[in-house]
Amino acid sequence: MLIENYKHHIYKIAYSVVHNEKDAEDIAQETFIKMIDALPSYQNQGFKTWISKIALHKAIDAKRKKQRKQEELTSFEEDYLFPDEGRVDEMIVEKEKTQLVQSAINRMPVKFQQVVRLYHLEGHSYKAIADRLDLKETTVKMRLYRARVWMKENWKEEDF
């Protein structure tokens, strides 16, 4: 009977603070739960005033909690501080692959190492490599060809 008599009044108080229908309904329910728990401490000082105070305090607490939660979400860029887990995994795998490739290139004959790095890792053209290493362009092409043959013979796909 108490709930029926005061539900609209409590809802209006909650809504005036939180300005959200669903939140106001939740606060009204919490107010009645709190009222039932606090009835033994009620001292006949005006029931409507007493339950209104409970509703007001519940609404203010809910609004503060919602504001704190919103501040926590907007106070820092989570993606900036903590990249998503999938991206971190990709970065680690990529770094490991790069290290494996570098290690494998280091095991190649010395005359192939430079041309392979310059061509495949740094993306230089045959002409740029030839100029840089003071070689003929055909020599660069031949070394790259022989390096590829060497890789096929000495590297296993599962190594990468």
Automatic annotation (TrEMBL):
GO terms for biological process: DNA-templated transcription initiation. CDD domains: Sigma70_r4. The keyword Transcription regulation applies. Residues 99-150 form the RNA polymerase sigma factor 70 region 4 type domain. Residues 2-68 form the RNA polymerase sigma-70 region domain. Keywords: Sigma factor, Transcription, Transcription regulation. One of its GO terms (molecular function) is DNA binding. Pfam families: Sigma70_r2, Sigma70_r4_2. It comes from the Bacteria. NCBIfam families: sigma70-ECF. Belongs to the sigma-70 factor family. ECF subfamily. This is RNA polymerase sigma factor, sigma-70 family. It comes from Gracilibacillus ureilyticus.
